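Please, structure for the following, as tokens.
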Amino acid sequence: MSSRDGVNWKRWDEEFLRPGPNAHRWWQRNNHIAWGLVETKNDLPGDGRELSLYAIENYYVGPCRLRWFSLRIDGFVSVNAPYKGGEFTTRPLTFAGRELEINYAASAAGSLRVEMQDAGGKPLPGYALADCPEIYGDQLARAVSWKAGSDVGQFAGQPVRLRFVLKDADLYSIQFTSGK
């Protein structure tokens, strides 16, 4: 379950944290996630930020303990496309800022591209899908760039749509920033 305000709750039938191969984690109050998330750092390349959470393991049979799990920043949910590809377009939105920053992960054979459109769905000149080189890799914060560059500040305050085309990739979050 989750709640943005502590009053209204949403429950999903799918598990976020699966029990795994330990048979004792499949019953008797196991896999209950402890209260709170902690932003931690690891030693991997990049900025190392991650979210850490803790869950009960071996509750009834012992030794009972909290197990540590980690996931990428904003890694709870993603828009995912298989190798054959997929796409989606946002509703019209207005933004403040100069760059579109994405949190994404793609396989070695995967990629994603972004198109900026006007409110009616027409590609903006210089920001069409063909103007966006394929984006590869796995980054928490990457500015999207088109042939016209990464500065989209000229469209700030105007309604735009974003079209994302993915191939064997996950898009975790987007935000408009003031740029570097």
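The chain has no helices and eight strands. The mean pLDDT is 90.
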